[in-house]
Amino acid sequence: MENRQEFIDLLTNTTGAFVQVEGSTDWSDGWKISVQGHTVEDAVELVERLGNLLSGTKVYFKVGTQRLIDAKSEQSTKLLTIYLPKNVDTRSYCELVRINLEGYKGADDIEEKRSYTKYAPGIFYRNDRDVNGEYIPA
After folding, report:
1. Is residue 77 domain-resident?
2. Count of domains observed in the chain
3. I need a labelling partner for 9 at 20 to 30 A (CA). Which of 20, 44, 52, 131 fits?
């Protein structure tokens, strides 16, 4: 990340709930990983720790903003969502995320999320498509 403070400012001042980052568009089979945290600083730490993995594998992802955090909903701790390209093994990618987040403390107290499967503390995954390819809300 070139300028940490600019990224913090973006996440703090953006009017939307997420900032989206382009990557592979080949993720239509629905598998995604949610990485949890509580603060904008947690979101920045996640991107810093996972940046090389995310850019190296060209995944599409989005980062939660202060507006999402302030909503105080079940989704408010979903600070990083990674959309996996087709033919990427979900659990293997979760393991790469876990390795890169070794020592991350931002999600230690976050409980399991409805409709997600817990992989490790703060790391959850799910498929958001049914057999017909229709979106399934969280």
Report:
1. yes
2. 1
3. 52
First to last CA, the chain: 30
CATH of the domain at 12: 3.30.2430.10
66 lies in a domain?
yes
User: Which of 17-26, 59-68, 89-98 is the least confident region?
Assistant: 17-26
The answer as to whether 133 is a domain residue is no
Model confidence over 94-121: pLDDT tens digits?
999 999 999 999 998 888 777 888 999 9
Residue 34 to residues 4, 76, 94, 118, 127: CA-CA distances in angstroms?
22, 11, 10, 9, 11
Helix axes 40-57, 90-100, angle to 10 degrees: 130
Report yes or no on 8 lying in a domain: yes
Short-list 60, 53, 64, CA closest to 98: 53
Place of tokens 């799910």: 126
- Taking a C-beta distance cutoff of 8 angstroms, is the pair 76, 85 a contact? no
What would the pLDDT profile of 3-22 be if each residue is shown by its tens digit? Answer: 899 999 999 999 999 998 87
